[in-house]
């Protein structure tokens, strides 16, 4: 057997094993973006893979119980564990199932008098992954079956991974003995991703799709879709559809299809936010902006602050002047004129001013 034939055979084994386990091959560690929101959860996942690969007599974490709101990546991470275990050894017996599927199979087994087949299916695996475990609270008989399945696997030193939208202590109407089992290993929450992680997720998604989207639109999506990875990817798909229909859309068009309320965001902008954003974008402390110094590099940044306060927030001339430590309203008029002229002549400067506007209002 040559090397190519062996590789093809190994690939076929892996694909068959993934299909049998009911895993989605797209969910891997490679495309799982790690951030502050899920770093612990991902480290636990890697440890689980290592324990199974090395056939450790004592599992580091068993069971693993992931919880978090819808769309934060629980299913991706759990299936990544299963896919990685099978990539390393396609002979492993893995089962991925939602609690609803588990219930339906149990009912069918009772109806067809195949209880033992059902029990063997889930009690003889190397790794059992159950999603949406919180729904077991509505099914007392399923809780009983799950308890015995859990005990059988645990005593055989097999790995169990569970996921829920809430921690075990908040799942109502489950028996104390089952809750105790859920809490007996590692309970790890997965939070919604922060801005940097959301941006990385969008870029990873683009890479997988083989498409590009202007950074300005990725920034808009990442800043306004905060709670769910699924919503992030849905928003990206909307923008991609818009670009396919007619070239590069405007910022306002993209904001509209994402249902971003730009007007209300403008109303929430404050002078303090303007000062903070301009200070950060231009790399000059607020203390210097408000100082009496007339150095050209300081003056132009001060002018930008006045320009945005006056033209975007429509703050009165006298108030705008006071906010940057000035007394004369004519200073504001001059600042606006200087900034407008400089923006026409200097594209890099214009882009910085535009970045300030985006960070303040969008």
UniProtKB/TrEMBL annotation:
One of its GO terms (cellular component) is cytoplasm. Residues 270-339 form the Chromosomal replication initiator DnaA C-terminal domain. ATP binds at residues 71, 73-75. Keywords: ATP-binding, Cytoplasm, DNA replication, DNA-binding, Lipid-binding, Nucleotide-binding. CDD domains: AAA, Bac_DnaA_C. Pfam families: Bac_DnaA, Bac_DnaA_C. InterPro entries: AAA+_ATPase, Chromosome_initiator_DnaA, Chromosome_initiator_DnaA-like, DnaA_C, DnaA_dom, P-loop_NTPase, Trp_repressor/repl_initiator. GO terms for biological process: DNA replication initiation; regulation of DNA replication. It is found in: Cytoplasm. Residues 1-20 are annotated as: Domain I, interacts with DnaA modulators. Residues 60-194 form the AAA+ ATPase domain. One of its GO terms (molecular function) is DNA replication origin binding. Residues 244-362 are annotated as: Domain IV, binds dsDNA. PANTHER family: CHROMOSOMAL REPLICATION INITIATOR PROTEIN DNAA (PTHR30050:SF2). Belongs to the DnaA family. Domain I is involved in oligomerization and binding regulators, domain II is flexibile and of varying length in different bacteria, domain III forms the AAA+ region, while domain IV binds dsDNA. Oligomerizes as a right-handed, spiral filament on DNA at oriC. Plays an essential role in the initiation and regulation of chromosomal replication. ATP-DnaA binds to the origin of replication (oriC) to initiate formation of the DNA replication initiation complex once per cell cycle. Binds the DnaA box (a 9 base pair repeat at the origin) and separates the double-stranded (ds)DNA. Forms a right-handed helical filament on oriC DNA; dsDNA binds to the exterior of the filament while single-stranded (ss)DNA is stabiized in the filament's interior. This is Chromosomal replication initiator protein DnaA. It comes from candidate division WS6 bacterium RIFOXYB1_FULL_33_14.
